[in-house]
Amino acid sequence: MKKLLISTTALAMVATNAGAAEMLAALGAPEGQVNIVAWPGYIERGETDKAYDWVTKFEEATGCKVNIKTANTSDEMVALMNEGGFDLVTASGDASLRLVAGKRVQAINTDLIPSWSKVDDRLKDAPWFTVDGTHYGVPYQWGPNVLMYNTEVFKEAPKSWSVVFEEQTLPDGQSNKGRVQAYDGPIHIADAAQYLMAHKPELGITSPYELNEDQYKAALDLLRQQRELVGRYWHDAFIQMDDFKNEGVVASGSWPFQVNLLKSEGLPISSTIPEEGATGWADTTMMHAEAAHPNCAYKWMEHTLSSNLQSDLSVWFGSNPVTPASCTDGSGMQTAEGCTANGMDDFEKIRFWTTPVANCSQGEGACVPYYRWVSDYIGVIGGR
Amino acid sequence: MTGAAHPARGLADLLTGVFWRRPKLLTALLLLPPLLWLGVVYVGSLIALLVQSFYSIDQFTGLVVPEFTLKTYGELLIPSNFDVILRTVAMAAAVTIASVVVAFPVAFYAARHARGRWKAIFYLGIMLPLWSSYLVKVYAWKLILAKEGIVTWAAEGIGAGNLLNAVLAIPVIGGNSLSTSYIGTFLVFLYVWLPYMILPMQASLERVPTSMLEASADLGAGSWRTFRSVILPLALPGVIAGSIFTFSLTLGDYIIPQIVGSSRFFIGQAVYSLQGTAGNIPLAAAFAVVPIAIMLVYLAVARKLGAFDAL
What we know:
The complex is a heterodimer.
Chain A: H1 2-8, H2 10-17, E1 33-38, H3 56-62, E2 65-70, H4 74-83, E3 88-91, H5 93-101, E4 130-131, E5 134-135, E6 138-144, E7 146-150, H6 162-165, E8 180-181, H7 188-199, H8 213-227, H9 237-246, E9 251-254, H10 256-264, E10 269-272, E11 278-287, H11 294-304, H12 307-317, E12 320-321, H13 336-342, E13 350-352, H14 370-381
Helix pairs in contact in A: 2-5, 4-5, 7-8, 8-14, 9-10
Chain B: H1 2-5, H2 11-21, H3 23-53, E1 56-57, E2 64-65, H4 71-75, H5 79-112, H6 116-131, H7 134-145, H8 150-157, H9 161-168, H10 182-206, H11 210-218, H12 223-252, H13 256-259, H14 267-274, H15 281-304
Helix pairs in contact in B: 2-3, 3-15, 5-10, 5-12, 6-10, 8-9, 10-12, 11-12, 12-15, 14-15
């Protein structure tokens, strides 16, 4: 319940507490280890695939042993940080402000991170980790939710998300009914809202994560229409890939991760970011307010911005480096084409995930909060 | 002198003395760990769940209001939530009935006709699926039932493609392919829980005395009459015990409907998505109480029918 309180009052508390932040002024000797909470596959030490290892060299160079605890959901990450005992967390946009509001993370002194200057200017002051000009972390990676499609059906990339929202005849002459998919998480309501931003401007939606009752209802109506087209919603990346292979699915919102894997298997798959733009995620390395190993933590944050790590990680995860040079400087496996495929050039078209809360820019209690997104989306999928 | 008659007593001796004088103390000590487990860990968490379900969420702020109310249970009755409950119960009932029908011949043969090595093979065949990972089995079924999977391929090969399409065209339970329809979800549930029906059924069938069957035959009953009036009533406790497994397991599962089926929510999935970031713990708890309530009713009926007489 405490967690819930934190999450729902996040914005209000952020505004009042930001001034109290204290940050490290200078670095001392490394403490010998650093404990990190991370998404699976985010911090690799060559155990899954020998070619992907960005931990061993760091440990040798700094003497800081890296201990990783993987977490599968943002809630799990927040819970682990609340428990304590960790120095760093790779928080997504729906967890980062909660952590700041709950005072679980501390402000970062960017002067102590020499590579800060290499960070993408578009991300330096991103609102999901910057509060009143104070940085509560270092960007780690980001990625869009792209429209994945079958190139045998679509000779040209679909221009609009309408292929998954409105019934229509696809270029191969058959209806899209039963051949498209959508994500089964309530956050998919934001994708519908974003589609409406472009196609029903009279609704006045300014952010797909801040919807008032009318805008919200319009988004749900669109999703009810989509239910008629969708055979199965996707939840697990590997099940979605299987559906593209065996279930005759030809278009769906997806992640570059699935697109790259299917392509590597030689399947006729490609992806695009349609004209309406796309939703996306951006993760930040944040430091615990009572981190026991601050010096190693700072060294790790500096290390995460190294071009080689950013480059290899973006290939491994199908995401984008936060240091743009990593796409082209040949420090790792990433290439300019790879970055383009992962959405590097489409930053402006992407609206990054934040948790919908009742108190939004439209006013106190003006927006529909996330818990209602959850219960209503259950209804939509159930055909209500 | 006393030392010679009574050598110095160790701690174990002392304890033995205490326990001998107070036998109830020993009983209490032995019972304490299981009682703590049952009381604190098991019943305690259930009670915490029950209490949460009587809280409600503030519609305006999204915060949980720790005041007792029935509002959250009322929310279970709104159509989209009630659908979830009906869907789950209907699936559990269908899976249970089908399990009885499929399992009975298997259990009957294994219990009364299979001998020696065949009996072992039957046991092995029934148990074998339980040794592999549940997830692997479900994923395998997803492939089998896929639109471009082996079932569709085989149906088309023997010219039954139209029949399959006709089945899939049935409203509600049909769908785009077997793996995206309720039929698919049903088949996978049936496969995964079938051993839990066969094993208790077989145990109860084995206990039916041969003399009764002979008596029935002596009195002129045909095989159908014997089955109906002798075997079935005597095997009923096993059938009911099995149905408790299949019914409750289907009621609580949230992985199969997520992988195979039309994505429409079952109770388990609703609980899973309502907690977490959504923070609607009261509604999640109320949903979680539903299967418990259903199972209590089910068990009461089963007891009446004598399912637990042999315990």
